[in-house]
Amino acid sequence: MTAAGAPTPHVTVLGATGFIGSAVLRELAARPIRIRAVSRRPGPVPPAGPAEVEVRTLDLTAPGAVREATEGTDLVVHAVAHIAGVSTWRVDAGDTGAERVTVGVARDLVDTAATRGGGPLPVVFTGTTTQAGLTRHEVLDGSEPDRPAGEYDRQKLAAERLLLAATERGVLAATSLRLPTVFGYGPHSTAPDKGVVAVTVQRALAGQPLTMWHDGSVRRDFLYVDDAARALTAAGDHIDELSGRGWLVGTGVGTPLAEAFAAIADIAAELTGTRVPVVSVEPPEYAEPGDFRSVTVDSTAFRTVTGWRPRVGLTAALRHTIAHCQGQLAGRGGGRPDER
């Protein structure tokens, strides 16, 4: 809340029409603040609320675009993602387009802040747990060294290091939230989820078998997208305490993929009347070592500082997601959902 007589806070969301960025925008729109929603293409504004929302359409890789996007803002939530193909995160080595988005926008943000005056610019960056690479332990607590294995992970880590180095120099007051497997839809979702959960839900509703690239024992820490958005906004609320380092965010529960897929099949069957099988298949050529690594997140440090806790359990989040996808399918007059 804003104190009486104090200026209304101004928050800029970069990537405001993306999967996570749009969820952050919905969360912030419930506050009495000013929001600049920046994206490459115009997108929907959340339902009427106390926030004043300005939609700014910009290609953030263009010269001067980051400066225009962040002018006069009090806080930047950096949720820009490189989207190509069937997912948001598989990047080929040497993909300069992806690097320009992931690393280049972070560099432009630092350069812009260095000349703006008025003190360090607060920034919340959406990182990923995979920046740590292949560790020996399933439970991540932030003490593990960073040895990213894939190009996407290396680029995310490079962007995070740029922002944190600028914080050490007093240019930014930046923090990075390293998120696990974020997924899901809710009643007001506007952006597509291209992750494994969404694809699996679409297959179940289409009556297709749910395929795993292993025996299903690999564990994932599944974080509902609305809980991820609340974590990012909580980071903005506590930027003074969080800036200068990365923080792990997750549920603390590692769910075997076989269990998650079985739950999807069961819930989808309640709507379709048919339960699809869950089967193991050979992994595709583009599978990476991280696809076979179990991850559970210990976010005790972040929770202690911010008071954040996940509110939506896996089963409830899957029900929200499956209901949303079924509604989209019905709205298209039936047929097979897109397999993204």
TrEMBL record:
Pfam name, any one: Epimerase
Coiled coil residues, start to end: none
Protein origin, superkingdom: Bacteria
Domain NAD-dependent epimerase/dehydratase: 11-249
PANTHER family registered for this protein in UniProt: BIFUNCTIONAL POLYMYXIN RESISTANCE PROTEIN ARNA, UDP-D-APIOSE_UDP-D-XYLOSE SYNTHASE 2
Protein name listed in UniProt: UDP-glucose 4-epimerase
Organism of provenance: Micromonospora andamanensis
